[in-house]
Amino acid sequence: MKRIGVLTSGGDAPGMNAAIRAVVRSAIFNGVEVYGIKRGYTGLLAKDYAEMSLRSVGDIIHRGGTILRTARSEEFKTKEGVEKALKNIEELGIEGLVVIGGDGSFRGALELAKRGVPVIGIPGTIDNDIPCTDYTIGFDTAVNTVVEAVNKIRDTATSHERTFIIEVMGRESGYIALYSGLACGAETILIPEKPYTMKDLCDKIMNGYKRGKLHSIIILAEGAGNAYEVRDKIKEITGLESRIIVLGHLQRGGTPTAFDRIVASKMGGKAVELLLEGISGKMVGWVKGEIVVVDLEKVFSTKKPFDDELYELANVLAI
Ligand code: ADP
Q1: Do the domains 3-138+256-301 and 142-253 sit in the same CATH topology, yes or no?
Q2: Among this protein's residues, is 200 annotated catalytic?
Q3: 15-31 mean pLDDT
Q4: Mean pLDDT on 229-255
Q5: Helical spans, DSSP H, in the chain
Q6: CA separation (Å) from 78 to 33, 173, 280?
Q7: Distance between CA 38 and CA 6 in Å, rounded?
Q8: How confident is the model at residue 162 (pLDDT cuts 50, 70, 90)?
Q9: Does the Cβ of 9 fall within 6 Å of ligand 1?
Q10: Which of 99, 107, 128, 130 should be mutated for ligand 1, with most atoms under 8 A from CB?
């Protein structure tokens, strides 16, 4: 193998740069050239790529976002788009491709793998919503960002004895809400996986105040309801005023945590190792603290199990 490509695609996540660095350096160490493809599949179609050197990935391990940029490409989803990508890959002489992104990016990767391009996926998304891996790159950083924000909000919440609704990312997955809620000691965690009634929510808030709680912090995943409607309902039922904080894209940026950098480095190194062994159509994952290699097909056919135990624990501890 003489030359491989690497791209980041879909939503950016802190730690993607650490993964790019690991791919580039591991490949060059093994005598393989690396081309960085800009803006995900968009750059693959537009022939927007450049050779990467050891130094081109210097001073990036601590940076959020992705130096390769990222994008969403509708064209790549079409048959013609994939054909064009295959032509460009052949022209460039890429014999393997590392795709860092979420499940959409992996679907694209699998299309290429099916047509004979050796491809390895690295899960990079703050949502941690990819099956067959305990962690995705960026999740730990995003959770820590939420925790830091809630620490600050808590000071005001306690001083003013207020209810705060903190909306975090997660349209279909409550992972960020669950982990940050547990880490922040939030009174309530509302996530798409666990339906709730406004009556139960309000009873919980009122019981908390009756038991002497000075505030109530509600972590709401985007997909679990509209923060403004929840606020209005709480007011209607309990008379309590709540404040809303929407953390939004703040959660996507920032310097990656040590954990995200370590996972990203290990995954990047493993992805190159797999390509060198002639392996394709796999995702590098992280299960019980170890690197694992999973078929991309299996990733798509598996549903990520919800961590009921953690959810129950968070509820017990928030009493
Ligand atoms: P993520 O990778 O974060 O889940 P997206 O779902 O937006 O992000 O996917 C990123 C890109 O991957 C899309 O813009 C598209 O180019 C490509 N992609 C997504 N789904 C498919 C698919 N079914 N077939 C081919 N390419 C896809």
Answers
A1: yes
A2: no
A3: 98
A4: 96
A5: 16-29, 41-46, 79-92, 103-114, 139-160, 175-184, 198-210, 227-238, 258-276, 296-301, 308-317
A6: 29, 27, 22
A7: 9
A8: confident
A9: yes
A10: 107
Percent of the chain with pLDDT over 70: 100
Indicate if ligand 1 lies below 6 Å from the C-beta of 108. yes
CA of 77 from ligand 1 middle (Å) equals 7
Give the per-residue pLDDT at 214.
78
Architecture in CATH of 142-253: 3-Layer(aba) Sandwich (3.40)
**pLDDT over threshold 90, residue 183:** yes
Report how far apart the first and last C-alpha atoms of the chain are (Å, whole number): 58
Q: Which residue has the tokens 């129950």?
A: 312
Domain 3-138+256-301 in this protein, CATH class: alpha beta
Q: Which of 127, 129, 140, 260 is catalytic?
A: 127
- C-alpha angle 198-170-8 in degrees, rounded to nearest 5: 175
Ligand 1 center from residue 243 Cα (angstroms):
36
| Residue-wise pLDDT tens digits, 53-112 | 999 999 999 999 999 999 999 999 999 999 999 999 999 999 999 999 999 999 999 999
In which band, very low, low, confident or very high, does the pLDDT at 161 lie, cut at 50, 70 and 90? confident
Tell me, in angstroms, the distance from the centre of ligand 1 to residue 18's CA. Answer: 22
158, pLDDT greater than 90: no
Q: Is 7 exposed, middle or buried (0-12, 13-18, 19+ CB in 10 A)?
A: buried
For residue 75, give the ligand 1 atom closest to its CA.
16
Give distance in angstroms: CA of 51 to centre of ligand 1: 24
Domain boundaries, the chain: 3-138+256-301, 142-253
